[in-house]
Amino acid sequence: MANNDDLRALVRTIPDYPKPGIQFRDVSTLLLDGPAFRRTIDRMIALIDPDSFDLIAGIEARGFIVSAAMSYALEKGKVMLRKPGKLPGKSVYIDYALEYGTDRIEMHVDAIRPGQRVLLVDDLIATGGTAMAAVQLLRGQGAVVDRALFIVDLPDLGGAQKLAAAGVEATALMAFAGD
Ligand code: AMP
């Protein structure tokens, strides 16, 4: 289905989570459907040219599900952008603001060779704070980042525009407007 309505119908909305006023777009219900998950990954892959990047970066935790599946299908290596204190090797971090609260992501300093082209993936882009932090972290280690893929975009929160302003083209399979 070109408009991805079949997948959109599987994303559950939980109002007022994790705090009042937030419409939580819950992809766990999409992940429960195996064929739908496969279609999700296939359609994300169809949006990009596999020769245009060297590595896939996934953001913990739901981003790992997407990045692992894409990495397996495309035989691309993946970089883990992790929550604080999880990485055993020498790491760098960046702090950033979330739609609800603040957070930090970390990566190994030796994960990327300067000049490697990295595709960023996550389940959802809201304000874009997380993705922008990921772009800055990756670029700080010498990565070239100009493309990001998501299952869900919340366009009213401006994340994709924020990425575009930073030279990263963001694409999602579906959007939930009005959030
Ligand atoms: P942001 O940094 O605002 O773009 O938030 C993106 C991250 O927070 C993603 O990793 C999402 O999984 C999660 N997130 C933020 N807002 C929502 C929302 N309304 N529904 C579901 N997940 C969200």
CATH level-1 class: Alpha Beta
Topology as a string of helices (H) and strands (E): HEEHHEHEEEEHEHE
Please name the CATH topology.
Answer: Rossmann fold
How much of the polypeptide forms β-strand, as a percent range?
A: 25-35%
- The outline comes out as globular
User: What average pLDDT do the residues reach?
Assistant: 96
Largest sheet: 5 strands, parallel
Characteristic key phrases:
single chain; 179 residues; alpha/beta; Rossmann fold; 5-stranded parallel beta sheet; two-stranded antiparallel sheet; 6 helices; 9 strands; 30% helix; 32% strand; binds adenosine monophosphate
Structure, described:
With 179 residues, the protein is an alpha/beta fold. The protein is globular and about 40 Å long. A five-stranded parallel beta sheet has the order 4-3-7-8-9, with helices on both faces. It has a two-stranded antiparallel sheet with strand order 1-2. Strands 5-6 form a two-stranded antiparallel ribbon. The protein has six helices and nine strands, in the order H-E-E-H-H-E-H-E-E-E-E-H-E-H-E. It has one domain: Rossmann fold, CATH 3.40.50.2020. Helix 4 (62-74) links the parallel strand 3 and strand 4 (77-81). The two termini are 24 Å apart. Helix content is 30%, strand content 32%. Helix 3 packs across helix 4 (62-74). The longest helix is centred in the first third of the chain and has 13 residues, at 34-46. The structure holds adenosine monophosphate.
